[in-house]
Design goal:
- It holds the Pfam family His_biosynth.
- It is an enzyme of class 4 (lyase).
- Pathway: Amino-acid biosynthesis; L-histidine biosynthesis; L-histidine from 5-phospho-alpha-D-ribose 1-diphosphate: step 5/9.
- It catalyses: 5-[(5-phospho-1-deoxy-D-ribulos-1-ylimino)methylamino]-1-(5-phospho-beta-D-ribosyl)imidazole-4-carboxamide + L-glutamine = D-erythro-1-(imidazol-4-yl)glycerol 3-phosphate + 5-amino-1-(5-phospho-beta-D-ribosyl)imidazole-4-carboxamide + L-glutamate + H(+).
- The chain has 256 residues and is an alpha/beta fold.
- It has one domain: Aldolase class I (TIM Barrel, Alpha-Beta Barrel), CATH 3.20.20.
- The chain is 35% helix and 27% strand.
- An eight-stranded parallel β-barrel has the order 1-4-5-6-7-10-11-12, surrounded by seven helices.
- The protein is globular and about 45 Å long.
- The two termini are 25 Å apart.
């Protein structure tokens, strides 16, 4: 059985780590290198780093910075933001990332997912879905870090990304992001049950119980989180211990 992964998410804006609520009201919380060093010590399974303004500012990622922080990262690293073509993906991977997260570009050019999977392997390609409720029960997708509404059903888009060749999906609730009130279990479960590739739950974690719910009720393969680790004393290691104690298979950790 695959082990459930705990994945902190680091959002970059102007070279600092920021965190917002519902993809808005961003505030700076840390700098990238010290945060990565801390997470190395806390035995996280993976890290996700996303430049949240690269796409809206129509610029490339800072590949030198990616190379710098990937050198300090001792766990699998997913990097996203501003990815628009195969050249960008190649540069990110050559800079030290293990996977590339693609969101906005997939709406404009869906074939990029297929081309990237064929060129670099589907295990390197993470399809990112940001979703929210346009009306009660009526879900849509978002691009450009929540700034642009896309009239696509998240479940259908998940199936499309899988068909195009994505190796896994990062599924984020814009409505729950930063609220620490729990994941959107309804949409999470619908997406996870619809596809055969791993689904990473994101948006809303406020405690370890929320993570357990995402796995047991939402059928997620992994849980990503940010605010819980930035603003509380809760840690990825303690989350892993909690999940393990509740029957969830997790990767080994040192007993402390």
């Amino acid at each position: 059985m695959l082990k459930t992964r705990i994945i902190p998410t680091l959002l970059l804006k102007n070279v600092g780590i920021v965190k917002g609520i519902k993809f808005n009201s961003w505030r700076r919380v840390d700098t990238i290198l010290p945060a990565i060093k801390v997470y190395n010590m806390r035995e996280v399974d993976e890290l996700i780093v996303v430049d949240i303004t690269a796409t809206s500012e129509a610029r490339e990622l800072d590949y030198e910075s990616v190379a710098e922080f990937s050198e300090e990262c001792f766990v699998p690293l997913t990097v996203g933001g501003g990815i628009k073509n195969l050249t960008d993906i190649r540069k990110v991977l050559l800079s030290g990332a293990d996977k590339v997260c693609i969101n906005s570009a997939a709406f404009d050019y869906p074939e990029l997912i297929t081309e990237a999977a064929e060129k670099f392997g589907s295990q390197c390609i993470v399809g990112s879905i940001d979703f929210g409720e346009a009306a009660p029960g009526d879900y849509i997708c978002y691009s450009h870090s929540g700034k642009v509404k896309i009239d696509k059903d998240p479940i259908e888009w998940a199936l499309t990304l899988e068909r195009l060749g994505a190796g896994e999906l990062l599924v984020t609730s814009v409505d729950r992001d930063g609220t620490m009130t729990g994941y959107d279990l309804t949409m999470l479960r619908r997406i996870a049950d619809a596809v055969k590739i791993p689904v990473i739950a994101s948006g809303g974690a406020g405690n370890y119980e929320h993570m357990l719910e995402a796995i047991k009720e939402g059928h997620a393969s992994a849980v990503a989180a940010a605010s819980i680790f930035h603003f509380t004393e809760q840690t990825p290691l303690e989350a892993k211990k909690f999940l393990g104690a509740n029957g969830i298979p997790v990767r080994k950790f040192r007993v402390r």
